[in-house]
Amino acid sequence: MTRASAVALPPGDDEKSGGDDMSRLNPEGRAAGSGRAVRSRRAVLGVLATVIVLQGGTAACGGPAAEKDTGASWELPRRPDPGVRDAVAGLMDGIGARSSAEEELIRQCMAERGFRYVKAPDDTAPVKMSADYAISPDEAEERGYGLRAQMKSAANAPRDANNDALRALPTSQREKWQNAFSGGREAPMMKVSVPEVGQMQTRDGGCVAKARKQLYGSLEQFLKLVTFQGNFAGQMQQRAARDPRVTALDKRWSTCMKNHGYAGLAGPSKAAVRAGDTYKERGPQAAFTFETAIAGADATCQERLSYAPRRRLVEDLYLTAGMHKYEAEVTAVRELNRDAQERARRVLSGRD
Fold first, then answer.
1. pLDDT digits (tens, 9 = 90+) for 167-205
2. pTM (2 decimals)?
3. What is the count of structural domains for the chain?
4. Is residue 71 part of a domain?
5. Biased-composition ranges for Basic and acidic residues (predicted)?
6. CB of 319 closer than 8 Å to CB of 236
């Protein structure tokens, strides 16, 4: 279904619903980010990526133990590894082909069970780390945070063919479709513990689980490692956000913004949130005028403080520390993806 719908669910929600809510029939796990743009069908390495929900009956069922840690509790290197951001982004290499292959396997499985499944369109855009800061004055003046463009894009997005088809089915047929897709309420629940994320769960049944087993070899490994890779960057950047160097930088930025007439903002991401809230309160043109104004002040304060390079340096220290701390998981992710990539190639070439 629509892969941009991934959101973090409260503990136990999946068990209450049986994983069959039409709004959560997304067959693929993706990281939802709170940066300025979240790609559909693609794991975005967002600054504030939330716990990923592997749709098709998968949810977070416990908060990450890391929440109790402070950013300063980690032993950090003196300097980041060269190219650490490229290395982190590289964990997602080939995700487009694997996503397309998973969609095709789900389509085939649903057809075998007598149901029609419409695949999500391919997305060939590259995966890259997003940020909810680092805005230039020119960008701010021209488009603000890009919120108006995002809203227009969302309004013009095509409707989800599977949701539309499901709504048109009688209740009994809808339930059969959902059972074929995700296994239904009777499918056993698999739970795994994911570093930096917590416990995740998914139903081991239906075409979604079958497709993932075919592609990744193990549903358990898929759930653990794909969740890990989709959340790793965001979790490291959240740790960096709690680092005293970043919190001190945010305080200086907040003071600068107050001097420009925008008080009560804890950090750059909050400026974009305030701009977004304005669209609910004012007309589109007035809201856009406010958006470009607050974004301009944000850009000015960031330039004055060298905000972006200072914050990136701290983030890169945490990314480096995390890549070393979780070296075994990183190696496992690369091996899992390498093998899945070959299977995906065969699926997409029609050999499987």
1. 888 988 999 999 999 998 889 999 999 999 999 999 999
2. 0.79
3. 1
4. no
5. 13-23
6. yes
